[in-house]
Design brief:
Elements: H1 3-18, E1 32-37, H2 45-56, E2 69-73, E3 76-81, E4 84-91, H3 99-105, H4 110-118, E5 121-127, H5 134-148, E6 153-158, E7 163-166, H6 171-178, H7 181-185
Antiparallel strand pairs: 1-5, 1-6, 2-3, 3-4, 4-5, 6-7
């Protein structure tokens, strides 16, 4: 599948998910991390580009003919970082809609429940490239997410693993360990 077809397929899958349909390109939940935001906000194309440049140590252009690029259409963006394709989405509502409260109530730790209850928006980073080993996919996603975690982020949720990690002094270090460059070179 060429890059333009891949981008179109990713956007179509996102639109179907927005309509409540569980649609994945390969039939399986993709590797992704969702940053839950205390104050809902839209991440701009320039913010995506700067975060990508810090994460991957490369220049990111705004056109899809470049080796590394980020393009955005409304709340969706697509990023190519060397061999890794990432799809980016965001919303100004709590993650999971009405079901979010029920999910939060089932979290095992009070710190997790409090953090989840504080969020009002989210940003998701999904691995959309050719499927490779999970640790490589998570490394690419974690590298970018580590650059987006700040005081507005209450925590990071991993939908495939059903794990929620509140934002504490350890979260950024954890994401950087997962995003170790050695894991990316294994692609």
């Amino acid at each position: 599948m060429d890059l333009r077809m891949k981008i179109r397929a990713v956007f179509e899958a996102f639109l179907q998910r927005m309509e409540g349909k569980e649609v994945w390109l390969d039939g399986e939940e993709p590797v992704s991390m969702v940053l839950l935001l205390r104050k809902a906000r839209v991440v701009s194309l320039e913010e995506w580009r700067v975060a990508a440049e810090r994460a991957f140590g490369e220049y990111f252009a705004g056109e899809e003919t470049a080796r590394n690029f980020v393009i955005q259409a409304g709340p969706f963006a697509v990023m190519q970082a060397d061999v890794h394709a990432l799809s980016l989405s965001q919303d100004m509502l709590p993650y999971g809609g009405r079901a979010s409260r029920g999910f939060a109530a089932g979290l095992p730790k009070a710190q997790q429940r409090r953090a989840w209850a504080e969020h009002n928006g989210w940003v998701a980073v999904r691995y959309s490239g050719n499927v490779c080993r999970l640790e490589v996919e998570y490394a690419a996603v974690a590298r970018l997410c580590a650059e987006l975690v700040n005081g507005n982020c209450v925590g990071v949720y991993l939908p495939r693993e059903l794990v929620f990690m509140p934002n504490d002094e350890e979260l950024g270090r954890y994401l950087r360990r997962v995003g170790d460059p050695a894991a990316l070179r294994a692609a």
